[in-house]
């Protein structure tokens, strides 16, 4: 939901979707790409929209490659694109700077109106989330250009999510929220912090799948009591990405233990937000008449 989603090693039956996506993006054969829910908003110096052609989709995948593969992992793919089997089924939210046409942020959106296959389910057992009433929207692959990592861009992404949520009649937002650590002591502190702040719930019986479990976490949680100094709290908050902090401020809940993503050297929390119960302080971001960000 907040930061990244790893390309899985599991290969579905039939044709390889990664190869198919590469052929689409490289024009072999030439296929069209269109959004399932078209979206276009202008906010002063910025455009908020869903990608509506292959060129715009290509731009989103290239920005993701720059952030997730080059910046985070210090690697490069020959294609220069970050793709997986879910991309062709999703809408892709774009934030564009109108002054120079630069793509500054993107978010992958997948609605239960169009699919029952979720990226999040590759890491978590989540059958109770699947059974929740109403339309559900999976958020993922969020990334922002390094020069635009500020409150304005976060507000623009929220504006796009709000508009898409309303257009799709979404009741629940969910996805993987990533925190860049694999240190078990830090994971324990983060878990305790979420628990202490009432951000954690076990109601939906979510748990990481076998190879994604943080080994020894249960023992660590029992061994060390819930106690954090002011310095530790500050360090924990610094580790949390802005979008995750925004979800929690809106009233989102973290569901159970995190999954350990060794490919991207981080942990993922399944984060769930009931649109009908968004906190009053944050409700303006989902209001049709909400003020627009300035920039």
The helix tally amounts to: 8
Largest sheet: 10 strands, mixed
Order of helices and strands: HEEHEEEHEHEHEEHHHEEE
The N- to C-terminal Cα distance equals 25 Å
* Model regions low in confidence, pLDDT < 50 over at least 5 residues: 5-15, 20-29, 288-295
Q: Approximately what portion of the residues adopt beta-strand conformation?
A: 15-25%
Radius of gyration: 19 Å
Proportion of helical residues: 25-40%
Mean pLDDT: 86
Protein structure class: alpha+beta
Shape: globular
Question: Your description of this structure?
Answer:
The protein is of the alpha+beta class. Helices cover 31% and strands 23% of the residues. The chain is built from 8 helices and 12 strands. It has helices at 17-26, 54-72, 127-130, 151-168, 184-196, 217-223, 230-239, 242-250; strands spanning 40-43, 46-50, 91-97, 102-111, 124-125, 135-144, 170-179, 200-201, 207-208, 253-255, 259-261, 266-274. The strands form 2 sheets. Strands 1, 2, 3, 4, 6, 7, 8, 10, 11 and 12 form a 10-stranded mixed beta sheet that branches. Strands 5-9 form a two-stranded antiparallel ribbon. Strand 3 and strand 4 form a beta hairpin. Mean pLDDT is 86; it is low at 5-15, 20-29 and 288-295.
